[in-house]
Structures are given as C-alpha cells and as structure tokens.
Amino acid sequence: MAVKTIQAPIPGTFYRSASPGTPAFKTEGDAVAVGDTVGLIEVMKTFTPVVAEEAGTLVAFHIENEDAVMAGQPLYDLEA
Question: What DSSP string describes the chain?
Fold first, then answer.
C-alpha cells in the first residue's frame, strides 16, 4: 500500500478538533473515508475543513494541534 502525504490547502492555524475539549476528528490509525473531516484550518476566525479526498488509514500527523501552517505544508500521511 502506498503512503501519500496530504498538504495544507491554505495557510492558517490547524485544529484537530471542532473545539477545545472535544475529541479529535481523526487520530493515527483511524480509517478515513472520502469526505471525512480530518481537521480545520482557521484564518481570521473563518474555519475551513480539511476534507479527505481519498480513503485509507491515517498513518501520522506532521503537525500538532494549534500549529500554524503554510499552504503546501505537510499535514498528515494517508495509507491508501
């Protein structure tokens, strides 16, 4: 199976859950289906979902919750 690195579509702050204290959308080892939300990127109080375009297994995150990201920066690895 091939591992694909998914990149940030826009710059901003990456969040792994919808709000503090709630479970992460996805964690390492979770199955990911097309259309699943993996995280959110916030820019000026606007939240853009990071949605899976392929199905597979989330292998690892390259960033931590609340890290600043740049467009094109690796977010997570997906094994398809």
Answer: --EEEEE-SS-EEEESSSSTTSPPS--TT-EE-TT-EEEEEEETTEEEEEE-SS-EEEEEESS-TT-EE-TT-EEEEEE-
